[in-house]
Amino acid sequence: MNDPDLGIPVREPAQTGVDDTILPFEVSALDLRGRIVRLGAAADAILSAHDYPLPVAKLLGEAIVLTVMLGSALKFKGRFILQTQSDGPVRMLVVDFTSPGTVRACARFDAERVTAAVAAGTANPGKLLGRGHLAMTIDQGPDMNRYQGLVPLEGNDLEYAAHEYFSRSEQIPTRVRLVVAEEFRAGANGARRRWRAGGILLQFLPQSAERARQPDFDPGDRPAGAKLPIQPEDEAWVEGRSLVATIDDIELIDPSLSSERLAYRLFHEHGVRVFRAAPVRAQCSCSRQTVATMLQSFSESDRDDMVENGKITVTCEFCSSTYLFAPDEIAAGGSTLS
Fold it and tell me: Per the confidence metrics, is the pTM higher than 0.70?
């Protein structure tokens, strides 16, 4: 799968697919780098924890894949957070990736508007999101500044938003494909629904500054009436993005097709080098202690308003875990919690 002249072992691509992995790869002949993400149990655990309408679950699944793709590029212990805020039926998506490989996610939506969109046949990702913004935040820890990038949502899907972000903020030619689907398997108690998700990210990263130049954005700072110069696309990038466009959705989620085999299918003519695949799993960071600490930050009167039937009930939006507290457990000053 790579060049023996560089001292890199050459072998056949793995035949067996492995879920919940991130496979980095490189096509040095075309100055391309990328990652392939396959999610099985991780996507199913997150999406099955909520009774989301089908189009909402699929949209959140796409956001999970995109976040895993981008967050897995972190070279330090930290968090990558993707969040949308918009005026569409799905008003918010939040996906939280903690390096090296845990992810959690949730969605907020207007059930009536989603139902209406489904009935009208307009429940596509762009319409569900509507207009607003997508924020991508890198959190390096309490002693470091956060970095945040914003891209507008203007009725387009998450793939389009990712392309706009990399084009305008990072100025890196990028192509993203995101796929989410349900898999039905027969079982002792009937068909069992499982979620699968996958995606590929491809970027053009030439060493030459001249080859890395991108066209100026309209209108830029050119004088009024001046023509915007045409910057031709690099042939290597044209070939790379064209190859990614040939991928069928099923290829990104098919458990019988390994990520290595997919990379080989796409780029074998140029030689493709794969790196060690990294695991990813669904894991929420909530706990009884963290929830109690959060409740202690409220005033006593606010906590009193939360009491119902002698208990304070808190349900995690990410994993749907429910925590019950007696009011005296979270009195000011705290106490030992079991």
Answer: yes
Q: Which domain covers residue 299, as residue numbers?
A: 288-330
Q: CATH number of the domain that 294 lies in?
A: 3.90.1280.10
Q: So what's the pLDDT on residue 62?
A: 98
Going 268 to 26 to 96 to 175, the CA torsion angle's sign is negative
Three-state DSSP class for residue 103 = strand
- CATH code for the domain in which residue 174 is found: 3.55.30.10
- The rounded distance, in Å, linking the Cα atoms of 305 and 186 is 47
Per the listing, tokens 């930050």 go with: 297
Residue 228 has a pLDDT of 56
Q: b/e string for 175-204 if b means 16 or more Cβ within 10 A?
A: bbbbbbbeeeeeeeeeeeeebbbbbbbbbb
Contact 134, 150 (CB under 8 A): yes
| 94: in domain | yes
